[in-house]
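Notes from hallway chat w/ T.B., transcribed later so I don't forget. T.B. wanted the structure written out for a chain they're using in a teaching module, and asked if we could keep both sequence and structure tokens in one place. Agreed to drop them here.
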Amino acid sequence: MSTDDHHPRRATRPAPPVSGPHAGYDRYGRLDHYYWRCERCGLETTDSTLERGCPRCEEGTDAR
């Protein structure tokens, strides 16, 4: 029985830590939105898919 599945696998790096959801407020102090933040590069977005991994960090570009 062969264990070769003929599918090359990428080396997996641990995803950078993402914090959130954080509450965002408007200028009157009312809850306006929720956002997530990548702790490695500082990317903030209202898109919850950031929880699955930061696209900026996965590309290897460092915003700092």
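Follow-up for T.B.: The two ends are 49 Å apart (CA to CA). Might be a good example for the class.
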